[in-house]
Amino acid sequence: MSGYRLIRTARKTVGIRLTQTGEIEVRAPLRLPKAYIDRIIADKHDWLERAKERAESAREYAEIAFGSKVLYMGIEYTLERLKAKSGGKTLISDSEMYISARDGESADTAYEKALRSAARDYLPKRLTELSRRFGAEEAAVRVSGARTRWGSCSRRSGKPPVISLSLRLMQLPPECIDSVIIHELCHLTVLGHGKNFYALMESLNPDWREDYAKEKKMTRRCMIWQVTK
Questions:
Q1: Is residue 156 within 8 Å of 164, Cβ to Cβ?
Q2: Where are the alpha helices (DSSP H) in 74-165?
């Protein structure tokens, strides 16, 4: 096993993360002996090697170019370019996704802009629909560019809660998008991920485990991929 990057923090446990570039990052308590950390890394050798193999596979999808395969609403399309005068539209055919791109603009940037535009149109409306269906508390919606998490829920005293949803949700199938939104709606009632939270999830979305399995499978193509232990 190659070396690793050690970060000392005021924590009680050792955390291991494999970054997208394949670097092993270890966060450890301030006074924990390095020899002990070395033994932990040695014990995790097989797990880290498997994680590196998965990371290499995930990097196949890291670069987006015109002519490459991309996901939109859970369906794979070939990404194609529209002329800049198309007014920023996104057009979908049976097998192609056409997006607007200015001269010199990368496919990755243009694709993200298309996802953001679609997210701003779709996600707030869908959250409102699901909120009303389940009688959830009213929440403000923020479409974010998050690359490592699908959504989050936050509260500030005296203000409505805010649910942030990543624009990259638009790559997932509709049922997975719903599952993420319902997850965040549940956090309006239960903050943590204990028994009460999952009981509420089960009552609102009995298929959430199947949705989570689909979502997890697609994460490598939709998010900056990383492994933690």
A1: no
A2: 107-134
For the whole model, what pTM was predicted? 0.74
| 136 residue type, one letter | A
Name beta bridge partners: 99: 81, 90
What region does 88 belong to: left with phi over 0, alpha with psi -120 to 50, or beta? left
End-to-end C-alpha distance for the chain, whole angstroms: 16
What stretches of 69-226 adopt beta strand conformation (E)?
69-72, 75-82, 90-92, 96-100, 140-144, 151-154, 162-166
Kindly report, residue by residue over 177-189, the tens digit of the pLDDT.
999 999 999 999 9
- For residue 158, what is the DSSP state? T
Alpha carbons 59 and 153: distance in angstroms, whole number: 29
Contact call for residues 16 and 5 (beta carbons, < 8 A): no
CA 53 – CA 73 distance, rounded (Å): 27
Report all structural domains of the chain as residue ranges with CATH numbers, in order of start: 5-61 (no CATH), 69-228 (3.30.2010.10)
